[in-house]
TrEMBL record:
InterPro entries: Cys_synth (IPR005856), Cys_Synth/Cystath_Beta-Synth (IPR050214), CysM (IPR005858), P-phosphate_BS (IPR001216), TrpB-like_PALP (IPR001926), TrpB-like_PALP_sf (IPR036052). Its cofactor is pyridoxal 5'-phosphate. It comes from the Bacteria. It catalyses: O-acetyl-L-serine + hydrogen sulfide = L-cysteine + acetate. Pathway: Amino-acid biosynthesis; L-cysteine biosynthesis; L-cysteine from L-serine: step 2/2. Residues 6-282 form the Tryptophan synthase beta chain-like PALP domain. The lineage of its organism: Bacteria, Pseudomonadati, Bacteroidota, Flavobacteriia, Flavobacteriales. This is Cysteine synthase.
Length: 295
């Protein structure tokens, strides 16, 4: 029996690829972060950022929280803020899927939509202005140490445990970079032989949840030394792989998970042996109003 929905965050399943990976000498596992109560890997960071800020006394029930998000972090923050009875405003581009907007509002958050022309960068600028001019507290997932520390405390140890300490390669899409930074830090402490592979979109590809940031918007928590290799994935390949994950592995996930799986399979085909873990960062149901799964 659990005392709070927050106790269900983490300890997500690690599922072996049975069809997509065709290299018999390499095992590929998908870590199903959509099994978190808020439906994505961002539940981990959202909980740690809010709980740690409360514990330090940085925020309280009177604090006006604000955060820019492309979707999953916003849903997670809305859920966690509701648990702790906090007020939060979430800012996101107007071309975000309606499932995401509706889910945030269902959890009780105020949602502000900014022009799609200025993207997530514009949403971040809006939130920073509200923080400076109107006294809002911005959690700032892009610079918040509690973001990556969530994965240092949970995601990394879970993967190490569930692979019986035998993981050789970890593959993760890079957005805020919290997942890859925290997991890398933990795994490298266990064995420096573990290779950390980040995934970015190719030029002119738009993959929600994966970014190749302009220098001025590069997340402050990002440390390039913690990533051994970066693989680029096209939007077309990410879309196709999201569909293949559903039809061939029974894993219903979004486009960024398709991007990570594309990179992971490319890696599996290169290796002579190994145990590869790829993050499946969310569920596919929050993309049903988009054209992701159209034939």
């Amino acid at each position: 029996m659990n005392n709070s929905i927050a106790e269900l965050i983490g300890n997500t399943p690690l599922i072996k690829s049975t069809r997509l990976n065709t290299n018999p000498n390499v095992s590929l596992y998908f870590k199903l972060e959509g099994n978190n109560p808020g439906g994505s890997v961002k539940d981990r960071a959202a909980y740690n950022m809010i709980k740690s800020a409360l514990d330090r006394g940085d925020i309280n029930s009177e604090t006006k929280l604000i955060e820019a998000t492309s979707g999953n972090t916003g849903i997670a923050l809305a859920m966690i803020a509701g648990i702790f009875k906090l007020n939060i405003e979430l800012v996101m581009p107007e071309n975000s899927t309606k499932e995401r907007v509706q889910t945030m509002r269902a959890y009780g958050a105020k949602v502000t939509l900014t022009s799609s022309d200025i993207g997530i960068e514009g949403a971040r600028d809006y939130a920073e202005t509200k923080m400076i001019e109107d006294g809002y507290f911005m959690l700032n997932q892009f610079a918040n140490e509690d973001n990556w520390k969530a994965h240092y405390k949970t995601t990394g140890p879970e993967i190490w445990r569930d692979t019986n300490q035998k993981i050789t390669h970890f593959v993760s899409s890079m957005g805020t970079t919290g997942t890859i930074m925290g997991t890398s830090t933990f795994l490298k402490e266990q064995s420096n032989e573990v290779q950390i592979v980040g995934v970015q979109p190719t030029d002119n590809s738009r993959i929600p949840g994966i970014r190749k940031w302009p220098e001025e918007y590069l997340p402050k928590i990002f440390n390039a030394d913690k990533v051994d290799r970066v693989l680029e994935v096209s939007e077309t390949d990410a879309r196709l792989m999201a569909k293949k994950l559903a039809t061939e592995e029974g894993i219903f996930a979004g486009m960024s998970s398709g991007g990570a799986a594309t990179a992971a399979l490319r890696l599996c085909n290169e290796l002579e042996s190994g145990i590869v873990v790829s993050i499946v960062c969310d569920r596919g149901d929050r993309y049903l109003s988009s054209d992701l799964f159209e034939l």
